[in-house]
Amino acid sequence: ALSGHTQAQYLVKTQPMKMAAAEGIWKDTADPAPWSAFAIIDSYKQENKFEINIPYAMSFLAYSKFEGGLKGMETLQKEYTVKYDSVVGEGTNYIPPVKTTYWSFRLMIGFGMGMILLSLMGAYLWRKGRLERSSLFLKFLLPAIAFPFLANTFGWVMTEVGRQPWTVFGLMTTADSISPNVSGGTILFSIIMYLLLFTILASVMIYLMVHEIKKGPENLHGIDSKVTTDPFNKVGA
Ligand code: HEM
Prior knowledge:
This protein is mostly helical. It is 58% helix and 9% strand. It contains nine helices and four strands; from the N terminus they run ααββαααααββαα. The relative contact order is 0.09.
Protein backbone atom coordinates (compact mmCIF):
# COMPACT_ATOMS: atom_id res chain seq x y z
CA ALA A 1 0.00 0.00 0.00
CA LEU A 2 2.83 2.39 0.82
CA SER A 3 4.76 1.73 -2.38
CA GLY A 4 1.48 2.01 -4.32
CA HIS A 5 0.84 5.37 -2.70
CA THR A 6 4.35 6.51 -3.74
CA GLN A 7 3.69 5.31 -7.29
CA ALA A 8 0.40 7.24 -7.40
CA GLN A 9 2.15 10.50 -6.49
CA TYR A 10 4.67 9.95 -9.27
CA LEU A 11 1.93 8.91 -11.70
CA VAL A 12 0.00 12.17 -11.30
CA LYS A 13 3.11 14.07 -12.38
CA THR A 14 4.30 11.83 -15.21
CA GLN A 15 1.11 10.30 -16.68
CA PRO A 16 -1.85 12.43 -15.53
CA MET A 17 -4.12 10.91 -18.20
CA LYS A 18 -3.61 7.41 -16.76
CA MET A 19 -4.43 8.68 -13.29
CA ALA A 20 -7.56 10.48 -14.56
CA ALA A 21 -8.67 7.28 -16.35
CA ALA A 22 -7.92 5.16 -13.27
CA GLU A 23 -10.21 7.48 -11.31
CA GLY A 24 -12.88 7.99 -13.98
CA ILE A 25 -12.29 11.76 -13.88
CA TRP A 26 -13.75 13.27 -17.06
CA LYS A 27 -13.87 16.94 -15.99
CA ASP A 28 -11.36 18.71 -13.70
CA THR A 29 -12.04 17.82 -10.09
CA ALA A 30 -12.85 20.10 -7.23
CA ASP A 31 -10.04 21.01 -4.81
CA PRO A 32 -9.74 18.92 -2.60
CA ALA A 33 -10.48 15.97 -4.87
CA PRO A 34 -12.62 13.02 -3.74
CA TRP A 35 -11.63 9.38 -4.39
CA SER A 36 -14.06 7.39 -6.47
CA ALA A 37 -14.92 4.12 -4.70
CA PHE A 38 -17.50 3.02 -7.26
CA ALA A 39 -18.66 4.42 -10.60
CA ILE A 40 -20.79 3.34 -13.53
CA ILE A 41 -18.77 4.70 -16.44
CA ASP A 42 -20.20 5.61 -19.82
CA SER A 43 -17.12 5.95 -22.05
CA TYR A 44 -19.24 6.77 -25.09
CA LYS A 45 -20.91 9.80 -23.50
CA GLN A 46 -17.76 10.52 -21.48
CA GLU A 47 -19.53 10.73 -18.15
CA ASN A 48 -20.22 8.68 -15.03
CA LYS A 49 -23.82 7.68 -14.56
CA PHE A 50 -23.48 6.94 -10.87
CA GLU A 51 -20.67 7.52 -8.38
CA ILE A 52 -19.79 6.86 -4.75
CA ASN A 53 -17.02 9.24 -3.70
CA ILE A 54 -14.89 9.49 -0.57
CA PRO A 55 -14.15 13.19 0.07
CA TYR A 56 -10.49 14.38 0.24
CA ALA A 57 -9.08 10.88 -0.39
CA MET A 58 -7.88 11.46 -3.98
CA SER A 59 -5.94 14.57 -3.00
CA PHE A 60 -4.26 12.51 -0.29
CA LEU A 61 -3.44 9.62 -2.67
CA ALA A 62 -2.00 12.04 -5.24
CA TYR A 63 -0.29 14.69 -3.10
CA SER A 64 -0.13 13.28 0.48
CA LYS A 65 -2.18 16.26 1.73
CA PHE A 66 -5.87 17.02 1.84
CA GLU A 67 -5.76 19.63 -0.89
CA GLY A 68 -5.08 19.80 -4.62
CA GLY A 69 -7.28 19.07 -7.61
CA LEU A 70 -6.71 16.84 -10.64
CA LYS A 71 -7.10 17.53 -14.33
CA GLY A 72 -9.85 15.61 -16.07
CA MET A 73 -9.56 13.56 -19.27
CA GLU A 74 -11.38 16.21 -21.33
CA THR A 75 -8.86 18.93 -20.40
CA LEU A 76 -5.90 16.60 -20.94
CA GLN A 77 -7.23 15.47 -24.34
CA LYS A 78 -7.38 19.13 -25.43
CA GLU A 79 -3.87 19.83 -24.09
CA TYR A 80 -2.37 16.75 -25.78
CA THR A 81 -4.10 17.53 -29.08
CA VAL A 82 -2.26 20.86 -29.20
CA LYS A 83 1.02 19.36 -27.96
CA TYR A 84 1.30 15.99 -29.70
CA ASP A 85 -1.02 15.85 -32.72
CA SER A 86 1.67 17.29 -35.00
CA VAL A 87 3.95 14.40 -33.92
CA VAL A 88 1.59 11.39 -33.79
CA GLY A 89 -1.13 12.42 -36.22
CA GLU A 90 -4.22 14.56 -36.20
CA GLY A 91 -7.31 13.43 -34.31
CA THR A 92 -5.45 11.01 -32.00
CA ASN A 93 -7.46 9.79 -29.03
CA TYR A 94 -5.26 10.15 -25.95
CA ILE A 95 -7.87 8.69 -23.59
CA PRO A 96 -7.10 5.04 -22.73
CA PRO A 97 -9.83 2.37 -22.22
CA VAL A 98 -11.34 3.94 -19.09
CA LYS A 99 -13.44 1.09 -17.64
CA THR A 100 -10.57 -1.43 -17.75
CA THR A 101 -8.14 1.06 -16.20
CA TYR A 102 -10.64 2.13 -13.53
CA TRP A 103 -11.70 -1.38 -12.45
CA SER A 104 -8.29 -3.05 -12.59
CA PHE A 105 -7.00 -0.25 -10.33
CA ARG A 106 -9.79 -0.90 -7.81
CA LEU A 107 -9.36 -4.67 -7.94
CA MET A 108 -5.61 -4.32 -7.28
CA ILE A 109 -6.21 -2.04 -4.31
CA GLY A 110 -9.13 -4.22 -3.14
CA PHE A 111 -7.06 -7.41 -3.06
CA GLY A 112 -4.21 -5.48 -1.40
CA MET A 113 -6.54 -4.18 1.32
CA GLY A 114 -8.01 -7.67 1.68
CA MET A 115 -4.55 -9.09 2.35
CA ILE A 116 -3.78 -6.37 4.89
CA LEU A 117 -7.07 -7.06 6.68
CA LEU A 118 -6.54 -10.83 6.75
CA SER A 119 -2.99 -10.37 8.03
CA LEU A 120 -4.21 -8.13 10.87
CA MET A 121 -6.96 -10.59 11.75
CA GLY A 122 -4.45 -13.46 11.65
CA ALA A 123 -2.04 -11.57 13.91
CA TYR A 124 -4.85 -10.81 16.36
CA LEU A 125 -6.05 -14.45 16.47
CA TRP A 126 -2.48 -15.66 16.88
CA ARG A 127 -1.90 -13.27 19.81
CA LYS A 128 -5.09 -14.56 21.42
CA GLY A 129 -3.90 -18.15 20.84
CA ARG A 130 -6.96 -18.93 18.73
CA LEU A 131 -5.42 -19.07 15.24
CA GLU A 132 -5.38 -22.87 14.80
CA ARG A 133 -8.94 -23.25 16.06
CA SER A 134 -10.50 -20.45 13.97
CA SER A 135 -11.72 -22.76 11.22
CA LEU A 136 -13.78 -20.14 9.36
CA PHE A 137 -10.79 -17.80 9.21
CA LEU A 138 -8.49 -20.61 8.06
CA LYS A 139 -10.98 -21.59 5.34
CA PHE A 140 -10.95 -17.97 4.19
CA LEU A 141 -7.16 -18.06 3.89
CA LEU A 142 -7.30 -20.77 1.22
CA PRO A 143 -8.80 -18.62 -1.58
CA ALA A 144 -6.62 -15.76 -0.27
CA ILE A 145 -3.59 -17.64 -1.68
CA ALA A 146 -4.70 -16.22 -5.03
CA PHE A 147 -4.90 -12.59 -3.81
CA PRO A 148 -1.28 -11.53 -4.47
CA PHE A 149 -1.36 -13.08 -7.95
CA LEU A 150 -4.65 -11.32 -8.73
CA ALA A 151 -3.44 -7.98 -7.32
CA ASN A 152 -0.25 -8.27 -9.40
CA THR A 153 -2.16 -9.08 -12.57
CA PHE A 154 -4.66 -6.26 -12.13
CA GLY A 155 -1.85 -3.82 -11.28
CA TRP A 156 -0.09 -4.81 -14.47
CA VAL A 157 -3.30 -4.53 -16.54
CA MET A 158 -3.92 -1.06 -15.12
CA THR A 159 -0.36 0.05 -15.89
CA GLU A 160 -0.33 -1.23 -19.47
CA VAL A 161 -3.90 -0.42 -20.53
CA GLY A 162 -3.85 2.97 -18.79
CA ARG A 163 -0.77 4.19 -20.68
CA GLN A 164 -2.34 3.76 -24.12
CA PRO A 165 -1.73 5.11 -26.74
CA TRP A 166 1.86 5.56 -25.51
CA THR A 167 4.78 3.16 -25.22
CA VAL A 168 6.96 6.05 -24.05
CA PHE A 169 4.77 8.89 -22.87
CA GLY A 170 4.87 11.87 -25.23
CA LEU A 171 7.57 10.31 -27.41
CA MET A 172 6.47 7.01 -28.94
CA THR A 173 3.06 5.42 -29.48
CA THR A 174 2.29 1.70 -29.22
CA ALA A 175 1.27 1.76 -32.89
CA ASP A 176 4.80 2.96 -33.78
CA SER A 177 6.39 0.32 -31.56
CA ILE A 178 5.49 -2.66 -33.72
CA SER A 179 8.70 -4.23 -34.94
CA PRO A 180 8.69 -4.80 -38.72
CA ASN A 181 11.25 -7.60 -38.30
CA VAL A 182 9.10 -9.87 -36.13
CA SER A 183 6.34 -11.73 -37.94
CA GLY A 184 3.01 -12.87 -36.48
CA GLY A 185 4.15 -16.50 -36.78
CA THR A 186 7.26 -15.82 -34.69
CA ILE A 187 5.16 -14.25 -31.94
CA LEU A 188 2.66 -17.14 -32.01
CA PHE A 189 5.55 -19.60 -31.74
CA SER A 190 7.05 -17.88 -28.69
CA ILE A 191 3.62 -17.61 -27.02
CA ILE A 192 3.04 -21.35 -27.52
CA MET A 193 6.51 -22.14 -26.14
CA TYR A 194 5.88 -19.96 -23.07
CA LEU A 195 2.50 -21.62 -22.57
CA LEU A 196 4.05 -25.09 -22.73
CA LEU A 197 6.92 -24.19 -20.42
CA PHE A 198 4.71 -22.58 -17.79
CA THR A 199 2.15 -25.40 -17.97
CA ILE A 200 4.93 -27.89 -17.22
CA LEU A 201 6.28 -25.72 -14.38
CA ALA A 202 2.77 -25.22 -12.94
CA SER A 203 2.08 -28.97 -13.06
CA VAL A 204 5.32 -29.73 -11.23
CA MET A 205 4.54 -27.07 -8.62
CA ILE A 206 0.99 -28.35 -8.03
CA TYR A 207 2.25 -31.96 -7.82
CA LEU A 208 4.90 -31.03 -5.24
CA MET A 209 2.52 -28.88 -3.19
CA VAL A 210 -0.19 -31.56 -3.08
CA HIS A 211 2.48 -34.12 -2.16
CA GLU A 212 3.63 -31.97 0.79
CA ILE A 213 0.11 -31.03 1.89
CA LYS A 214 -0.98 -34.67 1.96
CA LYS A 215 1.75 -35.45 4.51
CA GLY A 216 0.01 -33.09 6.93
CA PRO A 217 1.69 -30.93 9.57
CA GLU A 218 2.07 -33.75 12.16
CA ASN A 219 4.54 -35.61 9.99
CA LEU A 220 7.00 -32.75 10.36
CA HIS A 221 7.58 -33.86 13.94
CA GLY A 222 7.95 -37.44 12.77
CA ILE A 223 10.78 -36.57 10.37
CA ASP A 224 12.79 -34.58 12.86
CA SER A 225 11.74 -34.21 16.47
CA LYS A 226 13.71 -30.96 16.69
CA VAL A 227 11.60 -29.33 13.99
CA THR A 228 8.50 -27.58 15.15
CA THR A 229 5.63 -26.10 13.15
CA ASP A 230 5.58 -23.09 15.44
CA PRO A 231 8.67 -20.91 14.84
CA PHE A 232 8.03 -19.10 18.13
CA ASN A 233 7.97 -22.28 20.18
CA LYS A 234 11.37 -22.03 21.85
CA VAL A 235 10.96 -25.35 23.71
CA GLY A 236 10.68 -27.44 20.58
CA ALA A 237 13.29 -25.46 18.62
C1 HEM B 1 -3.10 -1.32 -1.54
C2 HEM B 1 -2.94 -0.24 -2.22
C3 HEM B 1 -2.26 -0.11 -3.56
C4 HEM B 1 -2.10 1.07 -4.21
C5 HEM B 1 -2.54 2.46 -3.74
C6 HEM B 1 -1.43 0.78 -5.46
C7 HEM B 1 -1.10 1.74 -6.43
C8 HEM B 1 -0.55 1.46 -7.66
C9 HEM B 1 -0.34 2.42 -8.72
C10 HEM B 1 -0.67 3.91 -8.64
C11 HEM B 1 0.16 1.77 -9.79
C12 HEM B 1 0.43 2.33 -11.17
C13 HEM B 1 1.87 2.67 -11.43
C14 HEM B 1 2.08 3.17 -12.84
O1 HEM B 1 1.25 2.93 -13.72
O2 HEM B 1 3.08 3.83 -13.06
C15 HEM B 1 0.31 0.38 -9.42
C16 HEM B 1 0.83 -0.59 -10.25
C17 HEM B 1 1.03 -1.91 -9.86
N1 HEM B 1 0.67 -2.48 -8.67
FE1 HEM B 1 -0.32 -1.54 -7.14
N2 HEM B 1 -1.17 -0.56 -5.54
C18 HEM B 1 -1.66 -1.16 -4.41
C19 HEM B 1 -1.58 -2.49 -4.08
C20 HEM B 1 -0.92 -3.47 -4.84
C21 HEM B 1 -0.72 -4.85 -4.44
C22 HEM B 1 -1.18 -5.43 -3.11
C23 HEM B 1 -0.04 -5.46 -5.45
C24 HEM B 1 0.44 -6.89 -5.59
C25 HEM B 1 0.51 -7.80 -4.65
C26 HEM B 1 0.18 -4.48 -6.49
C27 HEM B 1 0.84 -4.72 -7.67
C28 HEM B 1 1.04 -3.81 -8.68
C29 HEM B 1 1.69 -4.11 -9.95
C30 HEM B 1 2.29 -5.44 -10.37
C31 HEM B 1 1.68 -2.91 -10.69
C32 HEM B 1 2.25 -2.71 -12.10
C33 HEM B 1 3.66 -2.20 -12.03
C34 HEM B 1 4.25 -2.03 -13.43
O3 HEM B 1 3.99 -2.87 -14.31
O4 HEM B 1 4.98 -1.05 -13.63
N3 HEM B 1 -0.36 -3.29 -6.09
N4 HEM B 1 -0.12 0.23 -8.12
